[in-house]
Amino acid sequence: MKILVIGDTGFVAGYLLPYLVERFPGCSMYGMARHDPEDLNVAVEHLRGDTTSTDEVAEIVKRVLPDIVINLSSFSSVSESWTAPVACHQINYLGVLNLCLAITEHVPNTKLIHISSVEVYGGNADQSVCYNESSPLNPRSPYAVSKAASEFIIQQYGASHGLHYTILRPSNHTGPRRKPLYVLSGFAKQLAEIKRGLRQPVLSVGNLNVYRDFVDVRDVVRAYGLVLTSDGAHQQIFNVCSGSSYPISWLLDRMIDAAGVNVEIRIDPSRFRPADANYIRGSNSKIKDVTGWRPEVPIETTLKDLVLFWENAI
């Protein structure tokens, strides 16, 4: 079996590739991204290519002839999608269209595992709402719109060209090595700098009154691995969520406790988004029933590990 991971230099790939190498020891592993990885994994053959180039995607697919393609490639920052919507749609929609074209033309029996997002649901002010895979889509950011569009093109190619696919909608996921562009890792980096005396004990934050469903990246990659071998995942969509939603303010308090520092919280209006969902919580019942997956890492452990990572990095 040959597996091609698109976006093999990203945060999730740093956890997924070692997991797949261990889980499928006889498998040939390939990775593709626009840039070379900082730490080359000797068990993975890395190929340079840009998903927004139809020709480059086709050439790599023809060269590898994969049995499975896992698409991690993404313009993944919701906040940055507001300032760079064209780039966001080029990567998240056009890149997926190019994958569909290449797979159906050159390896029509290959299965595509595509990573979307629970952001496609749009969120709700009603905290009793728990989104399942049949919930209507209501994307509220350029990022969410691009992810919803990518799902539609994959389903269209499934219906019209017989594309084999599974679509996964992970909730917010984090853990050690997450870039500080993302909210919890950004908090952890600031706290580590304060603890090391590198900045004043003032924490700049955006909107702390929104609720988000966070899941540990190590749980996320287990879900991806289980989907690969599940007979019930064909042509299906799955949430990959914790099933719980926490206010950002509560998560920040737990991180401050883990860091052991006293800080002043300072609201920075420039960190607010033009539109933001008040509350997002996803149901994980379907993926539990089909694959047996369930989150195992408590949110408190994730937050402590994230703070410790930045303390060591600083």
Average predicted local confidence, pLDDT: 95
Q: Name the helicity range.
A: 40-55%
**Looking at the structure, what is the overall shape?**
globular
User: What is the beta-strand fraction?
Assistant: 15-25%
Number of strands: 13
Name given to the CATH homologous superfamily of the largest domain: NAD(P)-binding Rossmann-like Domain
Order of helices and strands: EHEEHEHHEHEEHEEEHEEHEHH
Strand order of the largest sheet: 3-2-1-4-5-6-11
- CATH domain class of the largest domain: Alpha Beta
Structural class: alpha/beta
Looking at the structure, the CATH topology of the largest domain is Rossmann fold
Q: Compute the number of helices.
A: 10
Number of structurally distinct domains: 2
- Gyration radius over CA: 19 Å
N- to C-terminal distance? 41 Å
Task: List low-confidence stretches.
Answer: none
The major pleated sheet works out as: 7 strands, parallel
Please describe the topology of this protein.
Elements: E1 2-6, H1 13-23, E2 28-33, E3 44-48, H2 54-64, E4 68-71, H3 78-81, H4 85-106, E5 111-115, H5 142-161, E6 164-170, E7 172-174, H6 183-195, E8 202-205, E9 211-212, E10 214-216, H7 217-228, E11 236-240, E12 246-247, H8 248-259, E13 264-267, H9 285-291, H10 299-313
Parallel strand pairs: 1-2, 1-4, 2-3, 4-5, 5-6, 6-11, 7-10, 8-13
Antiparallel strand pairs: 9-12
Helix pairs in contact: 1-7, 2-4, 4-5, 6-8, 6-10, 8-10
Structural account:
With 314 residues, the protein is an alpha/beta fold. The chain folds into 2 domains: 2-173 and 215-240, NAD(P)-binding Rossmann-like Domain (Rossmann fold), CATH 3.40.50.720; 179-212 and 244-280 and 297-313, UDP-galactose 4-epimerase, domain 1. 40% of the residues lie in helices and 18% in strands. It is built from 10 helices and 13 strands. It has a 7-stranded parallel β-sheet with strand order 3-2-1-4-5-6-11, sandwiched between helices. It has a two-stranded parallel ribbon with strand order 7-10. Strands 8-13 form a two-stranded parallel ribbon. The chain is globular, with a radius of gyration of 19 Å. The mean pLDDT is 95.
